[in-house]
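Hi W., the zinc ion complex you wanted:
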Amino acid sequence: MLPPVRTVTVLPGPRSYRIKIGTGLLDRLGHECAELKLGARCAIISDTNVQPRFGDAAQRALTKAGFDPVVLTVPAGERAKSLRTVEGCYNKLAAHRLERKSFLVALGGGVVGDLAGFVAASYLRGIPFVQVPTTLLGQVDSSVGGKVGVNLKAGKNLVGAFHQPRLVLCDLATLSTLPMREYRAGLAEVIKYGIISDAAFYRRLERDLPKLLAREPKTLAAIVARCCEIKAEVVRQDETESGLRAILNFGHTIGHALEAISHYGKYLHGEAISIGQVAAARLSARVLGLSQIDVERIRTLFEQAGLPTEVKLSPSQLHHLMAAMSLDKKVASGEIKFVLARKIGEVKFGLRVSEKLLQQTLANTFPPPPLPHSPTPPLHFRYVRR
Ligand SMILES: NC(=O)c1ccc[n+]([C@@H]2O[C@H](COP(=O)([O-])OP(=O)(O)OC[C@H]3O[C@@H](n4cnc5c(N)ncnc54)[C@H](O)[C@@H]3O)[C@@H](O)[C@H]2O)c1
Ligand SMILES: [Zn+2]
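Structure:
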């Protein structure tokens, strides 16, 4: 008997698509693409970590269903999200004579998904693409919602588009080779969904965390599916990020600033937003009266997931952190806008917080290190909200 497959539908109307979640779905990639009536010629875009593990299976599945795939392998890591890589992909697609009905398969984490999605959005003014996310972050977050793009030297995700995939296949079996640190980083987004919109889900995470950390298939399937449902619902209500979609950025204003002041080197995104969410919870207590019990539940869950919950910053690093947050486009007259929680499962967005209150909260959250402190790293990237 085939293992069960969970399905989440994203968006109504002509751009509607399905997220399928289950174990072993990669083998059905060809069959699924055939159902979408996509053209025969296609390309799999993957990276140097994922291609050796799952590239053959993806290629076999497509070929068996009558497709003619070419495989493009980009270097693993954030640097592949560049216009130079995009151009390299265009040239290979043209050499393989991909045409308007052709499609791309993004096989990898969020980097490959954002890159391949952007290539698909722009090659021949847009061709279809299918997401096969192989990181937990990819499955619960980046593959859903249609935001695609690449980085510039001046900042992350500065060039991009909204281009919805035709299908998202989350094969939970691919997560088995994901390094534990990357897996935990994905859990930071999972926990976020509980905080922003589902108290019962949050309680389940508290209860089932050991199973989740052990990547127990049934638990993982239910949890990935619930995260996709929550993101799909937010995207349905605000496809182009004009309002509600902001709630997906809980903990991200502080998290992104931390990534920026540490040169995008020290922390994985999930680790930075773990610290950011704990700080946002403390800020929520001050601004919206989030109970101390909930603040502590939030801190504890991130800690139990093996994620960092605080950093020690010198006063000048704290100053840089504040400056990085102020670079957010959504800053108005010295007040940074935040997503904050009233209670676990309920957040408000667009809340103005004075720099003074923010600084006070952050100073408590990030106690200064003992002297002598390390030199402050200069700011490199402009912070752009994701
Ligand atoms: N489009 C969106 O809405 C959205 C949302 C959130 C994040 N993002 C983007 O996603 C990116 C981060 O994604 P990520 O965390 O998945 O990073 P990633 O794609 O770099 O993957 C993390 C690492 O894991 C490796 N890997 C992937 N799958 C693997 C597997 N199954 N087994 C072993 N190794 C594997 C990758 O090669 C890489 O080294 C960022 O660029 C971010 O901007 C986009
Ligand atoms: Zn995030």
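Residues 46 and 107 are 5 Å apart (CA to CA).

W.
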